[in-house]
Amino acid sequence: MKNFIFDLYNTLVDIHTDEHSVDSWLGVAGFFSARGVEVAPQRLIELYDECWASYLYDVKQSSKYAYPEGNIIEVYKRMAITLGVALSDKEAAVCAQIARKDSMRRFRLFDGTVELLKTLKRNSKLYLLSNAQSVFTTDEINSLGIADMFDGIMLSSDYGCRKPDKAFFDCLFKKYGLKRLDSVMIGDDIESDGKGATSYGIRYVYAGGGAAAHRVEIITLA
41, 107, 113, 127: which has the fewest C-beta neighbours closer than 10 Å? Predict the structure, then answer.
Protein backbone atom coordinates (compact mmCIF):
# COMPACT_ATOMS: atom_id res chain seq x y z
CA MET A 1 0.00 0.00 0.00
CA LYS A 2 1.45 3.36 -1.01
CA ASN A 3 -0.72 5.73 1.03
CA PHE A 4 -1.86 5.36 4.64
CA ILE A 5 -4.44 7.94 5.67
CA PHE A 6 -4.90 8.29 9.42
CA ASP A 7 -7.54 9.82 11.60
CA LEU A 8 -6.01 11.63 14.60
CA TYR A 9 -8.01 11.63 17.82
CA ASN A 10 -8.65 8.21 19.37
CA THR A 11 -6.74 6.64 16.49
CA LEU A 12 -3.23 7.97 17.07
CA VAL A 13 -3.95 10.10 20.12
CA ASP A 14 -5.58 8.85 23.32
CA ILE A 15 -7.62 11.88 24.37
CA HIS A 16 -10.42 12.82 26.71
CA THR A 17 -11.86 16.32 27.12
CA ASP A 18 -14.71 17.66 29.23
CA GLU A 19 -16.23 20.81 27.78
CA HIS A 20 -19.15 20.73 30.24
CA SER A 21 -17.18 20.93 33.46
CA VAL A 22 -17.21 24.25 35.32
CA ASP A 23 -13.45 23.92 35.84
CA SER A 24 -12.95 23.89 32.09
CA TRP A 25 -14.32 27.43 31.79
CA LEU A 26 -12.55 29.24 34.62
CA GLY A 27 -9.81 30.43 32.29
CA VAL A 28 -12.29 31.74 29.73
CA ALA A 29 -14.21 33.50 32.51
CA GLY A 30 -10.95 35.17 33.48
CA PHE A 31 -10.33 36.10 29.84
CA PHE A 32 -13.65 37.96 29.68
CA SER A 33 -13.22 39.44 33.16
CA ALA A 34 -9.99 41.09 31.96
CA ARG A 35 -12.11 42.76 29.29
CA GLY A 36 -14.64 44.07 31.76
CA VAL A 37 -17.21 41.31 31.41
CA GLU A 38 -18.07 39.23 34.46
CA VAL A 39 -19.62 35.92 33.49
CA ALA A 40 -20.05 32.68 35.43
CA PRO A 41 -18.45 29.51 34.01
CA GLN A 42 -21.83 27.77 33.93
CA ARG A 43 -23.21 30.55 31.75
CA LEU A 44 -20.25 30.12 29.40
CA ILE A 45 -21.06 26.42 29.06
CA GLU A 46 -24.62 27.31 28.10
CA LEU A 47 -23.45 29.98 25.65
CA TYR A 48 -20.96 27.60 24.09
CA ASP A 49 -23.66 25.03 23.34
CA GLU A 50 -26.13 27.64 22.14
CA CYS A 51 -23.67 29.44 19.87
CA TRP A 52 -22.29 26.21 18.37
CA ALA A 53 -25.83 25.09 17.55
CA SER A 54 -26.89 28.38 15.98
CA TYR A 55 -23.62 28.78 14.11
CA LEU A 56 -23.74 25.26 12.66
CA TYR A 57 -27.33 25.84 11.61
CA ASP A 58 -26.23 28.91 9.65
CA VAL A 59 -23.28 27.02 8.16
CA LYS A 60 -25.54 24.20 6.97
CA GLN A 61 -27.91 26.66 5.33
CA SER A 62 -25.17 28.21 3.22
CA SER A 63 -22.79 25.29 2.67
CA LYS A 64 -22.50 23.30 -0.55
CA TYR A 65 -21.28 20.24 1.35
CA ALA A 66 -23.25 17.25 2.60
CA TYR A 67 -21.26 17.35 5.87
CA PRO A 68 -20.24 20.97 6.44
CA GLU A 69 -17.72 21.98 9.08
CA GLY A 70 -17.53 25.19 11.07
CA ASN A 71 -14.64 27.12 12.59
CA ILE A 72 -14.72 27.32 16.37
CA ILE A 73 -13.27 30.83 16.26
CA GLU A 74 -16.64 32.03 14.99
CA VAL A 75 -18.36 30.39 17.96
CA TYR A 76 -16.30 32.36 20.46
CA LYS A 77 -16.94 35.57 18.55
CA ARG A 78 -20.67 34.89 18.80
CA MET A 79 -20.35 34.17 22.51
CA ALA A 80 -18.57 37.48 23.00
CA ILE A 81 -21.23 39.42 21.10
CA THR A 82 -23.91 37.88 23.31
CA LEU A 83 -21.92 39.10 26.31
CA GLY A 84 -21.72 42.60 24.86
CA VAL A 85 -18.13 42.68 23.59
CA ALA A 86 -16.43 42.06 20.27
CA LEU A 87 -13.42 39.80 19.73
CA SER A 88 -11.00 39.81 16.82
CA ASP A 89 -10.14 36.51 15.18
CA LYS A 90 -6.87 36.49 17.13
CA GLU A 91 -8.60 37.12 20.46
CA ALA A 92 -11.23 34.48 19.76
CA ALA A 93 -8.45 32.02 18.89
CA VAL A 94 -6.77 32.67 22.22
CA CYS A 95 -10.09 32.10 23.98
CA ALA A 96 -10.58 28.80 22.15
CA GLN A 97 -7.06 27.67 23.05
CA ILE A 98 -7.60 28.48 26.73
CA ALA A 99 -10.84 26.49 26.82
CA ARG A 100 -9.26 23.56 25.01
CA LYS A 101 -6.30 23.39 27.38
CA ASP A 102 -8.49 23.65 30.47
CA SER A 103 -10.91 20.97 29.22
CA MET A 104 -8.15 18.43 28.59
CA ARG A 105 -8.22 15.46 30.92
CA ARG A 106 -6.05 13.01 28.97
CA PHE A 107 -3.77 13.60 26.00
CA ARG A 108 -1.08 11.21 24.83
CA LEU A 109 -0.07 9.04 21.92
CA PHE A 110 -1.23 5.46 22.13
CA ASP A 111 1.63 3.13 23.01
CA GLY A 112 3.38 1.95 19.85
CA THR A 113 2.09 4.78 17.64
CA VAL A 114 5.49 6.28 16.81
CA GLU A 115 6.94 2.86 16.03
CA LEU A 116 4.01 2.05 13.72
CA LEU A 117 4.33 5.33 11.83
CA LYS A 118 8.09 4.93 11.45
CA THR A 119 7.67 1.41 10.08
CA LEU A 120 5.08 2.50 7.52
CA LYS A 121 7.08 5.58 6.59
CA ARG A 122 9.92 3.44 5.22
CA ASN A 123 7.99 2.37 2.14
CA SER A 124 4.80 4.42 2.09
CA LYS A 125 3.45 7.95 2.39
CA LEU A 126 1.45 8.97 5.43
CA TYR A 127 -1.41 11.45 5.57
CA LEU A 128 -3.61 12.84 8.31
CA LEU A 129 -7.29 13.51 7.60
CA SER A 130 -9.01 14.70 10.75
CA ASN A 131 -12.28 16.25 11.80
CA ALA A 132 -10.60 18.86 13.95
CA GLN A 133 -10.16 22.55 14.65
CA SER A 134 -6.83 23.87 13.42
CA VAL A 135 -6.77 26.69 15.98
CA PHE A 136 -5.60 24.18 18.60
CA THR A 137 -5.07 20.89 16.75
CA THR A 138 -2.01 22.13 14.84
CA ASP A 139 -0.24 22.93 18.09
CA GLU A 140 -1.32 19.62 19.60
CA ILE A 141 0.13 17.67 16.67
CA ASN A 142 3.39 19.59 16.98
CA SER A 143 3.54 18.99 20.73
CA LEU A 144 3.36 15.24 20.12
CA GLY A 145 6.37 15.34 17.80
CA ILE A 146 4.66 13.54 14.92
CA ALA A 147 3.99 16.39 12.48
CA ASP A 148 7.07 15.64 10.37
CA MET A 149 6.02 12.04 9.88
CA PHE A 150 3.16 13.04 7.61
CA ASP A 151 3.42 13.91 3.93
CA GLY A 152 0.20 15.90 4.25
CA ILE A 153 -2.11 17.07 7.03
CA MET A 154 -5.68 18.20 6.46
CA LEU A 155 -8.00 19.46 9.21
CA SER A 156 -11.69 19.87 8.56
CA SER A 157 -12.00 23.43 9.91
CA ASP A 158 -9.68 24.62 7.14
CA TYR A 159 -11.82 23.12 4.36
CA GLY A 160 -15.41 23.72 5.42
CA CYS A 161 -16.31 20.02 5.27
CA ARG A 162 -15.65 16.94 7.34
CA LYS A 163 -15.62 13.16 7.16
CA PRO A 164 -17.59 11.22 5.98
CA ASP A 165 -18.08 13.82 3.23
CA LYS A 166 -16.61 12.62 -0.07
CA ALA A 167 -15.57 16.21 -0.69
CA PHE A 168 -13.11 16.13 2.21
CA PHE A 169 -11.49 12.96 0.90
CA ASP A 170 -11.45 14.48 -2.56
CA CYS A 171 -9.57 17.53 -1.27
CA LEU A 172 -6.83 15.25 0.04
CA PHE A 173 -6.62 13.07 -3.06
CA LYS A 174 -6.53 15.99 -5.48
CA LYS A 175 -4.03 18.02 -3.47
CA TYR A 176 -1.52 15.19 -3.22
CA GLY A 177 -2.34 13.27 -6.40
CA LEU A 178 -3.35 10.07 -4.61
CA LYS A 179 -4.96 7.04 -6.23
CA ARG A 180 -7.78 5.11 -4.61
CA LEU A 181 -6.33 1.64 -5.23
CA ASP A 182 -3.12 2.68 -3.50
CA SER A 183 -4.77 4.11 -0.39
CA VAL A 184 -6.28 2.99 2.89
CA MET A 185 -8.07 4.92 5.63
CA ILE A 186 -7.32 4.02 9.25
CA GLY A 187 -9.60 5.34 11.97
CA ASP A 188 -11.64 4.52 15.05
CA ASP A 189 -14.97 5.95 13.89
CA ILE A 190 -17.00 3.57 11.72
CA GLU A 191 -19.35 6.38 10.68
CA SER A 192 -16.95 9.18 9.73
CA ASP A 193 -13.83 7.17 8.85
CA GLY A 194 -15.40 3.92 7.68
CA LYS A 195 -18.43 5.25 5.84
CA GLY A 196 -16.38 8.05 4.36
CA ALA A 197 -13.65 5.76 3.07
CA THR A 198 -15.91 3.10 1.62
CA SER A 199 -18.20 5.62 -0.07
CA TYR A 200 -15.11 7.23 -1.62
CA GLY A 201 -13.91 3.85 -2.87
CA ILE A 202 -10.89 3.17 -0.68
CA ARG A 203 -10.12 0.47 1.88
CA TYR A 204 -10.80 1.01 5.56
CA VAL A 205 -9.16 -0.43 8.66
CA TYR A 206 -11.08 -0.03 11.90
CA ALA A 207 -8.74 1.17 14.63
CA GLY A 208 -10.72 0.97 17.84
CA GLY A 209 -8.36 1.28 20.80
CA GLY A 210 -5.79 3.05 18.65
CA ALA A 211 -4.08 2.21 15.38
CA ALA A 212 -1.09 0.64 17.11
CA ALA A 213 -3.39 -2.05 18.55
CA HIS A 214 -4.05 -3.14 14.96
CA ARG A 215 -0.40 -3.13 13.95
CA VAL A 216 -0.38 -6.62 12.45
CA GLU A 217 -3.32 -5.94 10.13
CA ILE A 218 -1.93 -2.54 9.08
CA ILE A 219 1.63 -3.76 8.51
CA THR A 220 0.26 -6.60 6.38
CA LEU A 221 -1.21 -4.01 4.02
CA ALA A 222 2.15 -2.31 3.70
Answer: 107
